Amino acid sequence: MSDGIVKILDGNTFVVSDERGDIEASLTDPTGLFSYDTRFLSKWVLTIDGQRLNPLSVDDLAYYETRFFLVPGTGTVYVDAKLSVIRHRTVGGGFREQLTILNHDEKRVSLEVRIEAGSDFADLFEVKDALKKKGEYYEQVKGGQLLLGYERETFARATRVSASTRASADEEGLTFRVRLEPHGSWSTELEVVTMPAVHEMAGLISPARRSAATMERDLERWLADAPRLECDRDSLKSTYRRSLVDLAALRFAPPVAGGKHLPAAGLPWFMTMFGRDSIFTSLQALPFKPELAATTLLALGEWQGSGIDDFRDEDPGRILHEMRYGEMTAFEERPHSPYYGCADATPLYVVLLDEYERWTGDRKLVRDLEHEARAALQWIDEYADLQGNGYVSYQRRNEKTGLENQCWKDSWDSISYRDGRLPGFPRATCELQGYAYDAKVRGARLAREIWKDDELATQLEKQAADLKRRFNRDFWVEDDEYFALALDVDGNQVDALGSNNGHLLWSGIVDKSKAKAVVRHLLGERLFSGWGVRTLAEGEGRFNPIGYHVGTVWPFDNSFIAWGLRRYGFKAEAAQIAAGILDAAEYFDGRLPEAFGGYERTVTKYPVQYPTACSPQAWSTGAPLLLLRTLLGLVPQGDYLIVDPALPVEIGHLELLDIPGRWGRIDAFGRGRVEVDHRQRRRSAAR
User: Fold this and answer.
1) Cα 401 from Cα 289, distance rounded (Å)
2) Domains of the chain (ranges plus CATH)?
3) How is 548-602 classified by DSSP, letter by letter?
4) pTM
5) Buried-state track 208-223, b at ≥16 Cβ within 10 A, e below 16
6) In this structure, how many other beta carbons lie within 10 angstroms of the beta carbon of residue 202?
7) Which stretches in the chain have pLDDT values below 50?
8) Taking every pair of C-alpha atoms in the chain, what is the biggest distance, in angstroms?
9) How far is the C-alpha of 484 from the C-alpha of 540, rounded, in Å?
10) Any alpha helices (H) in 49-98, and if so which ranges?
11) Quick one: pLDDT at residue 262?
């Protein structure tokens, strides 16, 4: 599925253009060259003799480079062109573009080749919210180079545009006078460099950047170090490789990480450190790339909240939600320096720390992060219980620019009653209680086995048991047998049925006596579309199959639901959900988007695109990885890895080789034996 947009990226730097390679951005259009939350190039248009070019094809060479094949001409009917153009673009510290023009005529030609260049230096929040700039622009031309600049008090950014061959530069771009012999060619390398601004060309130092060859070698090492997948289903092998490559593309090295990488959340809006997203993705990738989890834990621990700050919704022990580096953050027009407004990242931090140690045996990191983990556990009791009822709830203190919904379903209308009404605040969503329960159980293990604090371990175990007992009483919707989406400020159930029930299974907070009923809903017609579990059940007041959190299918969500099903012994049902998501991946060329439409599978025959979904997105990239772990039944147990496969028949034979962990490297095998019929199984599950 193509949306006409071409994206290449390297860490926090990315380029988004049309299929010609051109950029014509507006304040509301997320195209351009971005780095550290600033758009350094908003216009980049190639013309020959004043004429725009038409695309023939685009080569997706790698996540960091692409090649555009173009011809001159207008109209809808292709006429044999006498010229063709190749734009080979590589991102990194800005980007380089090798521009080549080929003359296919027997005659000599003279051409005026023009690159129009410009920058609005928009902060990513300005692009997202259509806001105007407050600083001053300038342009400088010297020696065939163009410098575009922006300043607002002490905040300054600049973009330098240059070429390897002689060019005539003006304040709006570069012009080349080209003479081509019959069947001849001409080439130049255009370079766009992002930098802090200075007024003089002399003394500019280009930021360090990697060559395409270096990035290629890095990617080859990354892929070679990952477990190898062999299976009868070629599309699954393609999806697996795409997931690994996209995960490599989304690696981000924040300044506090010492050059090591963690997963950025997704392109285009979220190429930065997100607490929740980085934690979930690290959990998904643990059997494949455990080093991501280590960096995530260290970096988030470094930025852990240490005081009370209402503007940033910060508390002691709280794990950040989002870190930004742009102009609006610098001038405190946005609180993301960092912003702490999420209620789930803090308990999930403890969950990741424990799962990481179970998988890797790295007790040193657990000891090194003991203070941070204790502070996170303390936050659950001292700062997250806003109503004094023993439940984690949220309410923003920054009413102007803080996040209203601080759970993973963070859009404005995601939490609702059956009839569509929205509850007030504070809100205690159900999955938050599951995460808190899991954090206490896992924290107790770490305290007893590694920190050697039996008193804390016993306290956490008692708290977890009490939370589980109260939760199964207060959140259980008795008449329909599922868990309410939330409790409102008065302690009443926010009684819509949502996919959050699957996260409760993953956390382990669900009483075994209630699990079968929950599973019946997850695989029933109201929630399960045939492709996956919808975020909100069909028939609820706010259900919309193309509403962001009110009816779409989120691959990440489904991967954790499947993991939860396996935890409670529902192997066939986990295989059913995995099969639907992996089938959907085929229609997206192996790259699962952030979300797709929640339409019934038998109606659409293919997954319907959600129009503004991020792609690639980290936790969607991680979804096939976690589904593979779930299908193979991989569970670390001491120094051993348990393998208990339950695969759909359609997958056939599957091998995952050289799985890293505390056991060294190990192989896992399975053969598809679970019969999956998307329509028949859905009907039987609903009865």
Assistant:
1) 35
2) 6-205 (2.70.98.40), 226-674 (1.50.10.10)
3) TTTT-B-HHHHHHHHHHHHHTT-HHHHHHHHHHHHHHHHHTTT---S-B----HH
4) 0.94
5) ebbebeebeeebeebe
6) 7
7) 1, 198-207, 680-687
8) 88
9) 12
10) none
11) 95
